[in-house]
Design goal:
Blueprint (H helix, E strand, L loop, with lengths): L2 H17 L13 H23 L2 H8 L3 H8 L2 H8 L3 H8 L6 H14 L6 H11 L1 H19 L8 H21 L4 H4 L2 H18 L9
């Protein structure tokens, strides 16, 4: 074999090697437990914001966080729980529940309106309403998680055998307001000033929570 041929082969091999892209560096695994949790929550907020609740996956969140799928589940048990942890909303309302029963409706109404007036599309109530249109299974799973969290919070203030029912009615009422004012943004509820809405909600929520506690309306 001639020197020119060998030289050409070496040159071709060098060019081929140079043309091949270097492998992408693997994301460094996060080892500290608190840092892992923080990385998962940060990645979750990003993925939920980009894809919405229904289309977001734990697998993509894990990849962005630099952890395994199993580790995400270990920390948060489900996509619903991860969503509620990553996107505070129902937990803000749970914080507003704390206090005496007398001022409960007003605290919840103020907290809901204050949060929703500055909320984005990743807010739990908005995510629930929007996901229901395209993925009912995802919406049901999220609703169950929100319901369980809410009932646990309200039981610290409310008593009686129908606490779960009253909390479910309250949630349904707020979801309806969310749909009218913050998703469709149409009609009298959407046009109402925030302060006026807070006042109306205080009255309606008080009726739901205390107006007929423990009794069901008589059937006609």
């Amino acid at each position: 074999m001639s020197t020119c041929t060998v030289s050409g082969m070496v040159s071709d091999a060098s060019q081929s090697s140079a043309a091949e892209p270097a492998p992408a560096p693997r994301r460094k695994r996060v080892r500290d437990p608190e840092a892992r949790r923080a990385a998962i929550l940060t990645a979750a907020r990003s993925v939920f914001a980009e894809h919405g609740y229904a289309k977001a996956t734990i697998r993509e969140i894990a990849q962005r966080a630099g952890v395994t799928h199993g580790l995400v589940v270990l920390h948060f048990s489900s996509k619903e729980q991860l969503f509620l942890a990553a996107v505070p909303g129902t937990r803000d309302l749970a914080d507003s529940v704390r206090g005496d029963a007398e001022g409960l409706a007003g605290r919840v109404a103020h907290a809901y309106v204050a949060r929703m007036e500055s909320a984005d599309s990743a807010d739990p109530f908005i995510a629930l309403v929007r996901s229901a249109a395209g993925d009912q299974a995802a919406a049901k799973a999220l609703l169950r998680a929100m319901r369980e969290e809410s009932i646990a919070a309200y039981r610290t203030v409310l008593t009686g055998p129908d606490v779960a029912l009253r909390v479910d009615l309250l949630g349904a009422h707020l979801i309806g307001v969310t749909f009218s004012r913050y998703v469709l943004a149409d009609g009298p509820i959407a046009a109402m000033p925030a302060g006026e809405l807070t006042g109306y909600l205080t009255m309606t929520l008080d009726g739901i929570l205390f107006g007929s506690a423990g009794t069901a309306p008589a059937s006609s």
